[in-house]
Amino acid sequence: MEWISANIGSIIVFLIIVVMVVCIIWKMVRDKAAGRSSCGCNCANCPSAGVCHSKLKKTPGK
Asked: What stretches of 34-55 show up as alpha helix (H) in DSSP?
C-alpha cells in the first residue's frame, strides 16, 4: 500500500494513457469495419493513392 501511495501520480498518468490508446484502437477498428479510411484523403501527396481508394466513377456528361 505504501508503494501505491508513493507512486499515485505515475499510476494515474499511466491509466490515462492506457485509456487513450484503447479508445484510439477502438475507433480505428470501428472505422475499418465501416469501410472508412484513417487517412486524410489528400491523395495528391500520397504514393499509395491508387491503391487505398477506389477510382471515382465518371458520370456521363460531366
From this structure: 49-52
